[in-house]
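Q: Predict the assembly, please.
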Amino acid sequence: MDLQAVVDDIAAKLAERRGEGKVADYIPELAKVDPKQFGIAITTVDGRVFTAGDATTPFSIQSISKVFMLTLALGTAGEALWKRVGREPSGSAFNSIVQLEHEHGIPRNPFINAGAIVVCDQVLASYKPKEAIGEYMRFMRSLADDDSLLIDRSVAKSETETGFRNQALANFMRSFGNLHHDVDHVLGVYFHQCALAINCVQLSRAGLFLAAQGRDPISGYSVVSAKRARRINALMLTCGHYDGSGDFAFHVGLPGKSGVGGGILAIAPGKASVAVWSPGLNKVGNSALGSVALEMLATRTGWSVFGA
Amino acid sequence: MDLQAVVDDIAAKLAERRGEGKVADYIPELAKVDPKQFGIAITTVDGRVFTAGDATTPFSIQSISKVFMLTLALGTAGEALWKRVGREPSGSAFNSIVQLEHEHGIPRNPFINAGAIVVCDQVLASYKPKEAIGEYMRFMRSLADDDSLLIDRSVAKSETETGFRNQALANFMRSFGNLHHDVDHVLGVYFHQCALAINCVQLSRAGLFLAAQGRDPISGYSVVSAKRARRINALMLTCGHYDGSGDFAFHVGLPGKSGVGGGILAIAPGKASVAVWSPGLNKVGNSALGSVALEMLATRTGWSVFGA
Amino acid sequence: MDLQAVVDDIAAKLAERRGEGKVADYIPELAKVDPKQFGIAITTVDGRVFTAGDATTPFSIQSISKVFMLTLALGTAGEALWKRVGREPSGSAFNSIVQLEHEHGIPRNPFINAGAIVVCDQVLASYKPKEAIGEYMRFMRSLADDDSLLIDRSVAKSETETGFRNQALANFMRSFGNLHHDVDHVLGVYFHQCALAINCVQLSRAGLFLAAQGRDPISGYSVVSAKRARRINALMLTCGHYDGSGDFAFHVGLPGKSGVGGGILAIAPGKASVAVWSPGLNKVGNSALGSVALEMLATRTGWSVFGA
Amino acid sequence: MDLQAVVDDIAAKLAERRGEGKVADYIPELAKVDPKQFGIAITTVDGRVFTAGDATTPFSIQSISKVFMLTLALGTAGEALWKRVGREPSGSAFNSIVQLEHEHGIPRNPFINAGAIVVCDQVLASYKPKEAIGEYMRFMRSLADDDSLLIDRSVAKSETETGFRNQALANFMRSFGNLHHDVDHVLGVYFHQCALAINCVQLSRAGLFLAAQGRDPISGYSVVSAKRARRINALMLTCGHYDGSGDFAFHVGLPGKSGVGGGILAIAPGKASVAVWSPGLNKVGNSALGSVALEMLATRTGWSVFGA
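A: Predicted assembly structure:
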């Protein structure tokens, strides 16, 4: 299969639709991004890279970072993490607080905001706040094989200043005893993790271990066990697109994680790691063109985990 | 891989645990079943069958039937069905009515009770009630390649008499205009579809088309398109185990659908269709031993869709 | 105080606003009513009657009947009734089913639909369905001192045919064991009780015992104890206007019960029973002009229970 | 009526039951209070005072303060306040956040925590934080006619340190734009208002204007209009006891406001203001013995607003 032709074709077909969707506006810095951008990058398990469009333009990783911070937290806490956060789709919006009240402060999964905040809190059991961010950066640079990755401090600051909803979630969980560290410290880590600037090439490279049984197939470095890689993929498939996870599985059929920056990381187990990016979001908060691009890709490649 | 050795080993390892879980007691007829039973059957896409335990003992198909009735309804209504039922995990119990009120009578997916009732209603747009049941039986016998399949009338009657919750769901949806036929007719079809008696061998045979791109690989008969087969698998993975779907994906990693009769149908795309049965249910209503058996099977075979 | 002048003045002031609000359309027979009608009647505890507008035009009593059926049920079951229905405002719409799921089939109060259905079920512990309706009619005719009161069979039939939501509520409660009789029998009573045709004069007369310590001050007949009369008034004040009860207490300050037929019964303890009627409803389902009329009346008379 | 005999009798009858209920333990300072205390004070509109038990022992006013801060806020903002907070019973616990999500950050009424926090925020439109607390103290001392009233700083500090749930509520409302000031400033005012130490005599005196058409009948000072006094009483009756408001109206029949410190203020319009205090709380968070005492008082005096 000529993957370069596939991505070129997808980029060409979507050229006219650039600008669809609505750029996230609740984080002021994100609202400034030009909506007419689209990029895609595929890194295969044998190390080839295929790109089209704005594949080297950095964007804000936002919630896609939850996959990587979860990986870090599982590394320090192991399966005990699952006492503090569930593994079920939420059936509600990414920032809903209703479920937390009904389930006594235990978030439904690590990919909704509340769950990701608990994951940060767990990491703070092993690291001080600044160290935690340092560890995360070291991890991301290593996975992306690119030491130039940086946090966009203006985005981190923008989130810190307007993050009332996340403040609410964190304080609410703390009232149930499911947050152990100072709320501002936990959210400091969370907002910095989300503010990482990354491009499609780097992101697809960083996710490659999930397509390769937990091992980075290029460096040979073992990131997680094969079992844990499968489980993270399972969580991405059932919970990775908030209340659009079922639809993404239905249309694309790959484990994936989206962010409000407009990026999506998708994993084709045994085959490739894919990153797409386009800032306009659909009504459930996932990249509009990114979702379409991945559906086209899955159709063309037959990579759906649900059958060729 | 010696699949016979695998299923024998699973059956042997679970022998001591027979009786775990709690038999469904809200349907009086089901409460009478001996809990110490366990069966497993694998039908591979190349037509081989492997069994262990009580693989030829009939049990009540219950909610696993939702996969087949959905297939029938998509055949008559096509994608228009999705205007009346969603494709997202529910985040709540199989018989919850709360979500229906919040979302104006549109069930979250076709595998919770409310969604399956809408699916029945859709089938009644093409068939009269008795014809609908007849069509369903014809379909099941054809898929299972076994004309001896029968509905257990005592179970159907048992459900009809105590099905107040389903009456509530159906009437509630009708109040929103999302049910078009007489409630008793719709539920009549629904209760009969759930009361089909089937065994593991028959069930694994019936689901084989979902492992084989929509085509029955033995008869060569095309049941659905490859795309539709993938989509049904996606729905099974994200929504097939009620509020335990995330956990099933995490531990087993296969599309699956459970029923309160204790059966589970699991699909390994491109490889096999698997049926397990053990009457005791875990706390979210899925077969306790059946779930464990499938996790063991996935581990031994590497069939998880999320990577070997 | 010249009460006749007061009601004349209210009717005059509201003449221009006749037709405000929206006539209930979910019961087809009610949708046919001319919206430009308004009536008011006051019956004082010393037996005087003051009327203005369409005070002798019959309308459908609808939910106001819940006050009277509750009185009957308390008469047969006593305080044991409160094991099956709560006494708290619901914080949701009159026909919400969400609360029932969260509170295991116990309705929040006897004035939301679910609670009124339980009240009917309780009455069926003492009477067969037809007898229950007969007893209710006997009671209403006695209280209104008018043997001409009749049930409007076309309204009863209209509700029976479209009452899917109430079917849902009843079946849902039955699934929790909080309904003991056949759903159709219970709803049969309920729909007939709601279909009573009554006018303002009759209604204000029927409610008089609640203004007079439980005793009909004209006939001298003791309907309920003074304590029970106070308690029914308390329930009317906290729960009598669905999710507009707080607002009604804030603006009017009298125990009251509204119906979707556009009627409201209000009680001024120690002073009078008041009935108003105008078919147009406000957004929470209470008579728009009726609410305004009662606020004007309370202001003019100083009858608010919260201070002159 | 010999009110002294009434309160003596109530205190005597409850002597054996002292210690019933459960002292609030989520505020550490409150958990230290001796549960076996009980006090009652009645101040009549003609200025007589009747007391029994621990009527001069100070306790923490807690949520009863919401009545007074609401009075202040209405004084500065007028009826515009009602755009930011509703007037309906909540149908849920005093600190529930679910309703806020469903109703877009508008609290149901000013007596649940979220509503009281909005009220504080409104006061901060007119005063700086320290001035707001000063104004509140000036108001309370004036109403209680006692300049010795003080805030218990250890209680205020205790709440500030553990008030994660209120932090969550405040941040949540801020995310909806329904909080305009710094969360810490708003909560600073809120925690100080709740930490006022007051005794039954002072509290019954402070509430007297609500029993006397808004005017302090002793000083002659007009606190609010008669209409506003009625409306505050209405809010107390429908919303003053959280999710036990209906029950309090049913059993006692007086406007009242409870606090987790164990105090209750009850108003008999035109007759008296009553304060009771006993630290043990019932399951909905209201003083167990205090509720019983008020029911006895209402029965003995015939002061129920729902009829003698």
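Chain B has two domains: 3-61+197-301, 63-194. Residues 213 and 227 of chain B are 7 Å apart (CA to CA).
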